[in-house]
């Protein structure tokens, strides 16, 4: 350290001597003012340098670093600015008086280069002192970072309580350590979540297996019941309850078979009533019966189709409205995406403009490095002319030249990278523009789809109105059917002629096994029931059945 301080003092003395020699030379008024400013700046810098040496000697590293990074750097920057101005003025003056005062121009360049070299040496010496004071703590922090990188998050980072830059670096390393601890905790939590997901998957598979077994049982029981029903057994029932949501199917099946059994019993009894009719209106009743049956079948089919159409139209209208909401949301999303793409294009344009400005700055730096290289080359030539006395200055000039060349090369590399970045930015702008156009096209298509969906909704509503009109027509047909029934009632006095048909009906019903256990014979004597009595029984039979069917929940769905 003492050697560095002695060397620094020697270089400061040399700089003062060079400045004194420069002052003895004739100078213009502006150069005298610059020399005065340079003298004041160097005096402040030298005083700060002496203070820096004193503080470093007593071991106050933080205070010394603050002094170096504050006042000394400011003083050095002011001196460099003044020197650069003097160099520029002397260069211009030398160019004007080059033909008449070549020797004086070379001397000026030598003195100017010497002052630059001395200032650089002073800054270098101060930097060496500062680095020596902070190298060991930085090495310890580097060791701590290596330990943390190896996965040991329990290691404690030193120097966290210091208030200088070393403390800031230590606290930054501590943040990395805390992040490593959080990452380990998240990894353990992720492993626990994976175990929980596997347990849920096994439970879901078990539930699906149980549901599959229940479904198999339901299908088997329904197949057995339908098989017996196909064989004519109307007394079949499914007694074994189904599990969960399948049991309503069993209840509906039993209710349907019960109603079929009741219907067969009622039909059998009504056939006996019809057997007491009269033969006088046989032909008329036959024709009327055919028309009534056809009309009733048409009414039933039309009613069923109308119900399906009504349900379908309701679902279609609902889904069309939902599609309209989704299409509107999609349109808004496409518009927002288009705005975002437009902003991205503007941001990339700003980046491209900034890159161009940086390229201009780098060109200026390249020019400065070229001029510095020329100055250093001239200084080396003059030092070579000076012989043994200029060897040290020649070495300094060579170093300055190499620094200028490296600066120029770095500026060229940065310019090349920025040129490549500009090409990528231009490609990105083109791609983002294409994406914006695509999003605009999507937005236009979505608007068209929205119009189509609106038209579909309106058409569905109009179809609903048409379905209501069809319902009115069905009511009118039903009224006609009731009138036909009245005609049958008026002609029922002669239903005894239908005895042969009734016998055939008996044989048909006899194929079924009913709960009533009725046995019908064609030759069974029947008591003739008055027409009014037959009318009441027919009305009661065909009115009570829909009421009982409507009272049994679930049969219409089944």
CATH topology tier name of the largest domain: Helix Hairpins
Instruction: Write down the Rg.
Output: 54 Å
Strand content: under 5%
What coarse outline follows from CA principal-axis ratios? elongated
Which regions have little confidence, pLDDT < 50, spanning 5+ residues? 518-558
Helical residues, percent: over 70%
Quick one: CATH superfamily of the largest domain?
Methyl-accepting chemotaxis protein
Short description:
The chain is mainly α and 558 residues long. The chain contains ten helices and no strands. The longest helix has 105 residues, at 282-386.
Structure, described:
The protein is an all-alpha fold and 558 residues long. It folds into 2 domains: 2-149, no CATH class; 232-551, Orthogonal Bundle (Helix Hairpins). It is 84% helix and 0% strand. The protein has 10 helices and no strands. Helix 3 (61-96) packs antiparallel against helix 4 and helix 4 (102-149) crosses helix 5. The longest helix is centred in the middle third of the chain and has 105 residues, at 282-386. The radius of gyration is 54 Å and the shape is elongated. Mean pLDDT is 69; it is low at 518-558.
């Amino acid at each position: 350290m003492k050697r560095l301080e002695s060397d620094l003092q020697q270089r400061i003395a040399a700089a003062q001597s060079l400045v004194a020699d420069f002052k003895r030379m004739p100078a213009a008024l502006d150069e005298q003012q610059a020399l005065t400013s340079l003298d004041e700046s160097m005096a402040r810098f030298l005083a700060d340098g002496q203070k820096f040496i004193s503080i470093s000697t007593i071991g106050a590293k933080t205070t010394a670093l603050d002094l170096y990074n504050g006042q000394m750097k400011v003083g050095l920057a002011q001196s460099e600015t003044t020197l650069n101005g003097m160099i520029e003025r002397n260069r211009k003056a030398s160019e004007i008086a080059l033909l008449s005062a070549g020797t004086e121009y070379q001397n000026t360049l030598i003195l100017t280069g010497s002052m630059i070299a001395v200032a650089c040496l002073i800054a270098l010496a101060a930097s060496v002192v500062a680095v020596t004071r902070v190298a060991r703590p930085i090495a310890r922090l580097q060791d701590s970072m290596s330990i943390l990188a190896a996965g040991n998050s329990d290691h404690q980072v030193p120097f966290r309580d210091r208030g200088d830059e070393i403390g800031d670096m230590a606290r930054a390393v501590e943040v990395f350590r805390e992040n490593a601890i959080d990452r380990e905790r998240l990894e353990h939590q992720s492993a626990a979540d994976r175990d929980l997901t596997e347990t849920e998957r096994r439970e879901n598979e078990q539930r699906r297996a149980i549901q599959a077994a229940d479904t198999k049982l339901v299908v088997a029981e329904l197949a057995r019941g339908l098989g017996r029903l196909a064989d004519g057994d109307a007394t079949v029932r499914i007694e074994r309850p189904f599990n969960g949501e399948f049991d309503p199917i069993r209840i509906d099946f039993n209710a349907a078979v019960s109603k079929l059994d009741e219907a067969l019993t009622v039909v059998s009894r009504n056939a006996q009533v019809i057997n007491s009719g009269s033969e006088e209106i046989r032909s008329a009743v036959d024709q009327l019966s055919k028309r009534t049956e056809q009309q009733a079948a048409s009414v039933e089919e039309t009613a069923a189709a109308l119900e399906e159409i009504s349900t379908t139209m309701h679902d279609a209208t609902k889904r069309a409205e939902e599609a309209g909401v989704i299409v509107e949301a999609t349109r808004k999303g496409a518009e927002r995406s288009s705005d975002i793409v437009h902003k991205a294009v503007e941001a990339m344009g700003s980046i491209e403009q900034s890159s161009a400005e940086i390229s201009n700055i780098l060109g200026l730096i390249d020019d400065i490095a070229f001029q510095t290289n020329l100055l250093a080359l001239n200084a080396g030539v003059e030092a070579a002319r000076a012989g043994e006395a200029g060897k040290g200055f020649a070495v300094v000039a060579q170093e300055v030249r190499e620094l200028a060349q490296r600066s120029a090369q770095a500026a060229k590399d940065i310019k090349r990278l920025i040129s490549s970045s500009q090409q990528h930015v231009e490609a990105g702008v083109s791609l983002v523009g294409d994406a914006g156009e695509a999003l605009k096209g999507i937005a236009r298509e979505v608007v068209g789809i929205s119009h189509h969906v609106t038209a579909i909704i309106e058409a569905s509503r109009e179809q609903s109105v048409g379905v209501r009109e069809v319902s009115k027509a069905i009511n009118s047909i039903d009224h006609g059917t009731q009138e036909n029934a009245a005609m049958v009632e008026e002609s029922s006095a002669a239903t005894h002629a239908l005895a042969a048909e009734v016998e055939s009906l008996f044989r048909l019903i006899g194929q079924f096994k009913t709960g009533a256990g009725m046995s019908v014979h064609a030759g069974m004597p029947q008591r003739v029931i008055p027409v009014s009595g037959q009318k009441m029984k027919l009305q009661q039979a065909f009115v009570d059945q829909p009421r009982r069917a409507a009272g049994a929940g679930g049969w219409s769905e089944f």
